[in-house]
Specification:
With 223 residues, this protein is an all-alpha fold. It has eleven helices and no strands. Helix 5 packs antiparallel against helix 6 and helix 8 runs antiparallel to helix 9.
């Protein structure tokens, strides 16, 4: 019974529609009516800019972290590591479902990638840092948040199954399921990426300007 209450609480935490509340309170708009129509960090980057996009991403990650930490309210699990991880996965998934189908925002939420990262960070921080590293490298090179999320999610089961060889079967299955879920929820993004129609987020502008100046200088001075 206590576990069920915690799962419901994790869902409610995940349901906090950060981007929707930010867009309505500070900008007087509903983020879901602009850009891709998604209530996640990627669309916030695109519509509201990098500062608010970063804020929403961190807040959505915190939802996953807080959800899995609810397990510490039940002292029984602190002495049973395997069962604790299983419950944490359940709590994290409840938060992710809440993010995708938020009760506080007409069940129209985001894709859950940031909340999944937060969930993983709360359970196994080293793996989460590795995935975030993949995300940041791809983002720096391409400025596509969607591609960064996809590749980081694909890297997740690679780290769990091969690099760290996680013994918990449920965690291994979860890692594979996350990669598949992200691929499924990003089908439109993948299509736009393949057709060159995916928009880049407005970050690293100074780097791009330097590159453009170098290209212009090279064109004017071919020798």
């Amino acid at each position: 019974m206590n576990e069920l209450l915690l799962i419901v609480l994790a869902y409610l935490i995940g349901s906090i529609p950060t981007s929707v509340w930010v867009s309505k309170y500070f900008f007087g708009i509903d983020i879901r009516e602009y850009g891709s129509g998604n209530a996640g960090a990627t669309n916030t980057f695109r519509v509201l800019g990098p500062n608010w996009g970063t804020f929403v991403m961190i807040a959505d990650m915190l939802k996953g972290i807080i959800a899995v930490k609810l397990v510490f309210l039940l002292t029984y699990y602190l002495e049973h590591e395997s069962q604790m991880i299983n419950l944490q996965i359940g709590l994290g998934l409840a938060a992710v479902i809440g993010h995708i189908f938020p009760i506080w925002a007409d069940f129209r939420g985001g894709k859950g990638v940031a909340t999944v990262f937060g969930m993983v960070m709360g359970i196994q921080p080293i793996v989460a840092v590795c995935c975030v590293g993949v995300f940041l490298i791809v983002l720096y090179l391409t400025r596509f948040v969607s591609l960064s999320s996809i590749l980081a999610s694909i890297a997740f089961p690679f780290f769990i199954l091969i690099i760290f060889n996680e013994p918990e079967d449920l965690y291994r299955v979860f890692a594979i399921a996350v990669a598949l879920m992200v691929l499924i929820t990003h089908q439109k993004n993948i299509g736009r990426l393949l057709h060159g129609a995916e928009s880049k987020v407005p970050i690293f502008k100074y780097r791009d300007r330097r590159k453009q100046r170098r290209r212009n200088a090279a064109n004017h001075n071919p020798l």
